[in-house]
Amino acid sequence: MTATPASTSPQLVDRYGRTVNYVRISVTDRCDFRCVYCMAEDMEFLPRAQVLTLEELAFIGRAFVELGVQKIRLTGGEPLVRRNVIHLFRDLGALPLRELVLTTNGSQLPHMAQDLKDAGVRRINISLDSLRPDRFRKITRVGDLDQVLAGIDAARRAGFARIKINSVILRHRNDDEVIDLVRFASERGMDISFIEEMPLGVIGDHDRAEAFYSSDDVRRDIEQVYTLTSTAETTGGPSRYFRINQTGTRVGFISPHSHNFCDSCNRVRLTVEGRLLLCLGQEHSVDLKRVVRANPGDIEALKQVIRDSMAIKPKGHDFDLAAKPVLLRHMNVTGG
Ligand code: SAM
Question: 221 alpha carbon to ligand 1 midpoint, in Å?
Fold first, then answer.
C-alpha cells in the first residue's frame, strides 16, 4: 500500500524552534547479532511485560502522525526478529505518512523483503560493516555474511525506492574496506552512509577512542579513488551527502562527533519499553507506556503528553570518546 502525504500540520515544536517530524521506533531490544560496538556479548533482554505490544506501538505511531510526524523509522535491536512484526508495518503503512522506513541487519530479508515492500516500506537501510566472511563474523560475533548478502539481493528484487548500506568503520578492524564497501554499493545502485561510532553503553572489548575512525578519515580514503561532490540533498535525517562523480552513488556521513548535527535535529526516539527519548545522547525522556496503559484508547491524552514533552528536548548532546560512557543505554535499547 502506498501512503498518501501527511496533511496534518506540525504540532511538535521545541523550545529552540525545531520541528519534530521524524520518529524512530525501536520495536525490540533483541537482536540475532551481537555487534562489538553495539552490545555486550551476554546481553540481558527485557521481559515481555515491560515491552510495548505491537498494538501499543501502532497506537503511539498513530498519535505521532496526528501530531504532524511525516516519517517513521522502525529499528531496534533487530526489528525483523520480533514475532508478527509485519502487522505493525502494515498498520503504520496505512497511516498518512510521507515515509515508512526500516533499519535492519538484513538477516531476515530473504523471507521478509517482499512483505515489507507490500506493507508500504519505501526505503530500507541495511547495516553492513565488512564483505569478508571471517571479519563479518568477528564484528557481529555471530552473523553470517552470506545470509545478509542474500537479504540484500531479496531487497533489490522487491523494488524498494531506495536501499542504503550503513557502515560503522573502526580503526584496525575494517578501515581498509571503505573502498570495497563503496564499490559494492555502487555496483548495485545502492547508497551508502558511514556512521561514526557513538559511545553508548558499556560494551567491554574495545577502547572506543582507540577504534575511532572519523568521517573525515573515511572521506579522505574515498577521495584517493573517487571524486566526491557535496550535495544539499537530505533524507530528513542526520546524514550529510556527497555524490561520487564517476558512479553517481550517494555517500552519506553521519558524524555526531566531528560535525555536530543537533541544530537541525528533527527527531525523537521511542524505546520498546515506551520511553520517549528526546535526544540520542541525553537521558531526557517521558514514559509513554504509563500514559497508554493508564488511558487505554485515549489518543488525545497521549498526544497531549507528547506535545508537552517538547519542553524538555535538550539543545544537543556532547559525546566524549575519552570519557567513560555517561549513557548506560546500549544502542539496541535506544534504537539505532
Ligand atoms: N539491527 C538493525 C541494524 O543492524 O541495522 C537496527 C539497529 S542497529 C542499532 C542500527 C545501526 O546502529 C546499525 O547500523 C549499527 O551499526 C549502528 N550502531 C550500533 N551501535 C552503534 C554505536 N555505538 N555507534 C554508532 N553506530 C552504532
Answer: 22
